[in-house]
Amino acid sequence: MRLFTAVHKDTELQYMRDYKPHREDVQHLRVLVHGPVGAGKSSFINSVNSVLRGKITGRPLAEANASESFTKKYKTYKIQKGQPGNFYHFVFNDTMGVEMEEDGGVHPEDIILAMKGHMRDGYRFKPGSKLSEDNQFYNAEPTLNDKVQVLVCVVPADKIPLLTDGCVKKIKDIREMASELEIPQLAIITKIDLACPQIQKDLKNVYLSKKLKETMEQFSQLVGIPMSYIFPVKNYDEEINIKDDVDSLILSALRQIIDFGEEFINDMET
Q1: Domains of the chain, start order
Q2: Crossing angle for the helix pair 165-180 and 210-223, to the nearest 10 degrees
Q3: pTM of the predicted structure, to 2 decimals
Q4: Residues 15-32: pLDDT tens digits?
Q5: According to the model, what pLDDT value does residue 21 have?
Q6: Residues 108, 78 contacting (CB under 8 angstroms)
Q7: Residue 244 above 70 pLDDT?
Q8: Which helix (H) or strand (E) holds 199?
Q9: Which of 74, 116, 171, 233 gives 20 to 30 Å between its CA and that of 38?
Q10: CA triplet 16, 187, 62: central angle to 5 degrees?
Q11: 242-261 burial, b for 16+ CB within 10 Å, e for fewer?
């Protein structure tokens, strides 16, 4: 697998612009992002936004502190396409990070409720506790547009060897429930340049790095996500201009997210 050529990049960007769920009763494909604190979840959403808009953007804000989740509220992020008011037909929902401690970070049940469409925008996450049915942000009758079609686990390459048993268990619990709901899942490995000097020197070495491959294999074995469903990316963290090599990895992951989600939407019951 190689990084995209300029022509391929343009083709993928056009695919994203043209994409629309084939089912008329589904307005958009909903992607739920979760993972450890400081993994780069918000940065990934922001990076997708930057790639599709062709410029570095600052929304949503990235995690400010790797030891504490920046995301406090459940929110749907739309990406503008062309003129204001026109959006891509896929949306992202960010979540509070999964902390290493057993009772810290987002409650796994909150992720499950979000997947089922029971969580409304504006819900404030509470470490160690879940959304209750009597809460004003509990959606008792979710529609197809409220439900999640793809679950994306974001993990930092340099921290995978340090994941605690408790953190791995939370990720696996969330994964098992998604499997019961038949929601497709994939993983995004961020901060690949921090995990491998070869990649830090040149991003084009991403598919030549034995160290990165071993790191991805380790994560695959820990949580059970197949290697073919794990995608390495470099988020836009410090750059002031977009770069083709960075865009290539992000677009590759996004294409799979959309393809997985579209297949799921087509199989959804009304």
Answers
A1: 30-203+211-265 (3.40.50.300)
A2: 70
A3: 0.92
A4: 999 999 999 999 999 999
A5: 96
A6: no
A7: yes
A8: helix 197-201
A9: 116
A10: 75
A11: beeebbbbbbbbbebbbebb
